[in-house]
Amino acid sequence: MSTLLKPKTAAELRDVYLRQEMMPTIFCDGCGLGNVLNYTLWALDELQVDLDQVVFVSGIGCSSRLSGYVNADGMHTTHGRALSFASGIKAANPNLKVIVFTGDGDGAGIGGNHLLHTIRRNMDMTVILVNNYIYGMTGGQSAPTTPIGGLSTTTPYGNVEYPMDICALALALEAPYVARWTVNQPYPPIKSIAQGIAKRGFALIEMLVPCPTAYGGRNGLKGVEAIWQWYRENTVLLDDFEHIMEFGTLEEQEEIKHKLKVGVLRDTERESFEERWAKLVEQVKL
Amino acid sequence: MEQTYNILIDERWCKGCKLCYIHCPTQALRIAERFSPRGIHPPELALVARCNGCRLCELLCPDFAITVTEEEEVALHG
Predict the structure, then answer these.
(1) Is the pLDDT of residue A2 over 50?
(2) Which of A151-155, A163-167, B66-70 has the lowest mean pLDDT?
(3) Which residues have CB under 8 Å from A286's CB, separation 6+?
(4) Contact between A10 and B64 using a beta-carbon 8 Å cutoff
(5) From what superkingdom does this record's organism come (chain A) (predicted)?
(6) For residue range A47-79, what is the model confidence (pLDDT) as tens digits?
(7) How far apart are the CA of B67 and the nearest CA of chain A, in angstroms?
(8) Which CATH number characterizes residue A59's domain?
(9) Which of A159, A184, A167 is nearest to A127 (CA)?
(10) Is a pLDDT exceeding 90 seen at residue A116?
(11) Scanning every residue of chain A, which has its alpha carbon at the shortest distance from the alpha carbon of B67?
(12) Is residue A127 within 8 angstroms of chain B, CB to CB?
């Protein structure tokens, strides 16, 4: 696995990609958002992308602070509207690589409609949607992804609404690249984010990130170790899931049935908005 | 000949979340008794011989505070 990454160190990585004066990050102890930033930077390093050709866009929330730490052009936009701004950037200059950091409350809750239509349009961008099951920055209100029974400040007796599966939504709208990862293992998300950035068309990478402060503390997962362990125990690799469902015993199948599937859920080719637009321009030219 | 590794911790950036300590596959790290300038107990490499240089702590650190370096190769006698 060591051949995957170029022989560079974190110290060299941060000199190239980070705004040193912004560090250290504002995130709480045990938050996985720093890891998401770390993996994205390693993915950019793997692809050897020129930082002047990358634009980071984000909305509002803990996850949306990430664009401010990268030493590249970026926009910190209004709540839920990151994808609309990103679509505008991409339409104005299709040569730029657009990476969107958004959260579950920002991208799937308040900006849910923008998410639908940006996927439908198949804009060529990479969306790293950080899912921590809660509105963390505003004080722990329940989000569209909060599991049934999950405690939050707005659901003090437990959540009764069914949660939303963001990857299933993207699959239904035929996004060409859909993946879901936890932050527990570094290598698979790094590889996946690199694939997403290289993909022509909409790439959605849902990162399951532990929030020990707003979610973990209220839901019996107090402390860094407990909540990170929960993610390790309640997820199963897609390949393992399929393998066990086909060849495993009944007990093994029963054990993994309720678990979240992580992995690359779809990787296909689909003509992006820019390609179709360029064709149309060519067609109607006088 | 045995390759040994050293772990450099940037104490200005380390928040003391202990993720490196929790995840170390060989339990080579420990949390120091002393305080860093930020007022937390930083991690440190306790057992140099155990560290196999997998760089998991470096990749998992949310604050880019850890760097794993390769030490000069030391010739073992006998």
Answers:
(1) no
(2) B66-70
(3) none
(4) yes
(5) Bacteria
(6) 888 888 999 999 998 888 899 999 999 999 999
(7) 6
(8) 3.40.50.970
(9) A167
(10) yes
(11) A10
(12) no
Q: Tell whether A152 is within 8 A of chain B (Cβ).
A: no
pLDDT at A95 over 60: yes
What is the average pLDDT across A163-167? 91
**Could you give the number of structural domains in chain B?**
1
CB-CB: which of B10, B15, B62 is closest to A35?
Answer: B62
Residues 19 to 78 of B: which have CB under 8 A from any A CB? 19, 22, 55-56, 58-69
Residue B63 in domain: yes
Return the pLDDT at A3. Answer: 44
Could you list the residue range(s) of the whole structural domain that residue A42 is in? 26-284
Is the separation of the CB atoms in A187 and A170 below 8 Å? no
- The predicted pLDDT at position A48 comes to 87
Q: Which domain holds residue B10?
A: 5-70
Q: Is residue A221 one of the residues assigned to a domain?
A: yes
d(CA A242, CA A97): 34
Residue A61 within a domain? yes
Low-confidence ranges of chain B (pLDDT < 70): 1, 72-78
Is B15 close to A29, i.e. CB distance below 8 A? Answer: yes
The three-state secondary structure class of A141 is strand
| Assigned domain for B75 exists | no
- Mutation target among A35, A36, A190 for the B interface, most CBs of B within 10 A: A35
d(CA A191, CA A10): 17
| Residue B1 CB burial class (10 angstroms; 0-12, 13-18, ≥19) | exposed
Domain count, chain A: 1
Tell me whether residues B59 and A30 touch, CB distance under 8 A.
Answer: no
CATH of the domain at B59: 3.30.70.20
Given B8, B10, B62, which is nearest A34 (Cβ)? Answer: B62
In a domain, B78, yes or no: no
Half-sphere exposure of A173 (CA within 13 A, CB side): 23
Residue A6 in domain? no
Q: Is the pLDDT of residue A236 over 80?
A: yes
